[in-house]
Amino acid sequence: MKPLLLISNDDGIDSPFLPAFVKAMAKVADIEIVVPAKEQSWIGRAYSRHSKLKIEQVEFLGFKTHTVSGTPSDCVNIALSHICKKPDAVVSGLNIGQNIAFPLLWSSGTFSAAVEGASWGFPAFAFSMRLEKQFYDSCRLRHEAPKEGCSLLKNLEDASETSANYVIETLKQNMGLGEVRNVNFPIKYTSETPFKECKPARTMARPLYHENNGLYEFKYAIKTLPSDELTDFECLENGWACHSKINII
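Above: the chain sequence. Below: its structure as tokens.
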């Protein structure tokens, strides 16, 4: 009997990464999908406390799918309490862009959807992939799906298949209560890329906003602290895929 996976994300129902990710997961598990109605990146653990949320059932590749007019944490909370059967795991992703390093992980909607699942006591997974700027701009900013023959499409399909196999193999183990497995794929990932266990890098705050004609624009910045252990940042810099165990209970 296949396990049941609840799939969510922070890139929303229109994520160009969602079809390949869902198809890969559906090969190894039964799935239900509950995702934001629109992109909710960098929203962290936010809940829509002062809003009345709208849930809609939508058509998506023939799978049971709902959208929520709220955050990733809203999606998983409502899914687990009102929409879905009890899943064997909560799976978030595949995110357009990396999700690495404390404290930046806590800003990630992708990671936060997994944290919501783990806080309910379910095995939880967050998957993300670093991209070249040209692909990041087309996928994240313009929501353009990778075209047939594009190198990114093969990278995306390989990362999605690895994600699905990782979930199934990990569920055969005894994951700790409140444990999230955070997985990141490097630029140009293939099934032959090394896959390392690591720790989230430690970081300190950096300027994230730059003044431009009297307005302040966000610009991603990260500076890691030295570590005696292999970190997720180091793995991606070396072109390796990586996974880390993070306990949130």
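Helices lie at 18-28, 72-83, 109-119, 133-141, 151-171, 232-237.
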